[in-house]
Design brief:
64% helix
Length: 147
Amino acid sequence: MRVRERKTMPRVTRLMAEQLLSDYTRNKRELAMMRDDSIPSTTPSYSLTSGVQSGNPEARPTEEITMTIVADARYIYLTTAIKSVEKLLHQIDPATQRLLYLVYMAPDPISISAASTVVNQSQANAYRCVLQALTQLAIIAGYMPAP
């Protein structure tokens, strides 16, 4: 008799996928703040050279600001994390989206078993849906290879 081999996600990979989901809202806020901080001021410069003189760190051209943002490792991480979660949310059904929101993204997260009652699913099905979503997110984010 053949025993079906059960493939499980490594614990570290699961924790990383859960972290992406729980940080999603905060990452979006932080990215928006980074973008707002990097937009040059629309207030005109009052220097004789319009603020473009060398050595003036206050008046950098837009190109330099853009290069700084793109080269920033935190910016790259945030955009990658946000895009990974958004791609997952577009691929899964609304009931699973609601489960993930209640368990990971809500201001007051609840357990999977409590969330299963909110979305009218059995606990086993809720755990299965969450694990499948976490596996999908880990693959999208590049934490584990596709099967």
